Amino acid sequence: MSVVGRVHRAPKALFESRSGSGEIIVGDAAAELPRLAAGTFRCCVTSPPYWGLRDYGYDEQIGAEEELSAYIARLVRVFREVRRALAEDGTLWLNIGDSYTSGNRRWRATDKKNPARAMNYRPPTPDGLKPKDLIGVPWRLALALQSDGWYLRSDIVWYKPNCQPESVKDRPTRSHEYVFLFSKNEDYHYDHQAIRELTDDGRGLRNRRSVWPINTEPFPEAHFATFPRALVEPCILGGSQTGDRVLDPFFGSGTVGVVCQRTMRGFCGIELKSEYAEIARRRLGWRD
Q1: 91-95, 178-182, 275-279: lowest mean pLDDT where?
Q2: Looking at the domain assignment, is residue 222 inside a domain?
Q3: Which residues fall within 8 angstroms of residue 50, CB to CB, at 6 or more apart?
Q4: Is 13 inside a domain boundary?
Q5: Taking a C-beta distance cutoff of 8 angstroms, is the pair 178, 158 a contact?
Q6: Residue 240 maps to which CATH number?
Q7: Is 182 helix (H, G, I), strand (E, B) or coil?
Q8: Radius of gyration from C-alpha coordinates of the chain
């Protein structure tokens, strides 16, 4: 679907399809989410910036906090606004990765294979952890969101068969991340029929399991990690119906929007970095 995009620069930059099926708001999620109407979206599918991983070039950006507790607290506030914007039967599908403590080494060597991958510093070791500890960011965030009122319904393991090699000799190479399924209320929309998977013999269908083997998906225009479409699609199909609206407050290169177009959903993406919003606009086939 190719639609005409238009840009509004005040009070915020906005790319919007003429059909009204999709929009991209260029701005900070914490500032923009409160402006969205309550109960607007059937589900939210998103992946926020990981803690201490990448510098997006903005002051006070999420992920650049000195303290892990501050990072968790900021995301809890963001997702509190997401919950307000969801329908009463809405769900949140949240992808988040983990990292290790630095042992208080505050510098980070340049990643020659992927120079945009990391910040040039490391945050301090969180209180109570030791050098070389796995921090457990996904579960710390999941439990904080649960305490804030979300229903934690499933921990989905995204297994990456083509994971990036690691030159480590004292632990296994990491080949997975988490996708957490939260609901706004006890009763919620979940279309299990839409996301059934093949049985082991390939002859039938069964309820989708909680381990999803999905390859990472490079995107040549983006010098950062992008959502694989195969990871996003079951979240959208399971959490919404044709014609529903889907929210992504950390829109990046726009994969959620691309999948929404293909599956006949509307969407709203919020993206801090205007360059990424431009990449998303081009991916969506929007014209000036």
Answers
A1: 275-279
A2: yes
A3: 63, 96, 97, 99, 137
A4: no
A5: yes
A6: 3.40.50.150
A7: strand
A8: 19
What is the C-alpha to C-alpha distance for residues 132 and 118, in angstroms, rounded to an integer?
A: 18
Task: Give the pLDDT confidence of 134-150 residue by residue, as tens digits.
Answer: 999 999 999 999 999 99
Q: Do 72 and 138 meet the contact criterion of CB atoms below 8 Å apart?
A: no
State pLDDT tens for residues 154-172.
999 999 999 999 999 999 9
CB 241 within 8 A of CB 194: no
The token duo for 77 is 């506030």
Question: Structurally, how many domains does the chain consist of?
Answer: 1
Query: pLDDT tens, 233-279?
Result: 999 999 999 999 999 999 999 999 999 999 999 999 999 999 999 99
- 264/86 Cα distance (integer angstroms): 19
Residue 213 placed within a domain: yes
Under the banding of pLDDT at 50, 70 and 90, the label for residue 94 is very high
Residue 125 lies in a domain: yes
Reading the block at residue 26, the tokens are 């260029």
**3-state secondary structure string, 214-273?**
CCCCCCCCCCCCCCCHHHHHHHHHHHCCCCCEEEECCCCCCHHHHHHHHCCCEEEEEECC
Q: Is the bond preceding 11 in cis, omega lying within 30 degrees of 0?
A: yes
Which domain does 36 fall in, by range? Answer: 22-274
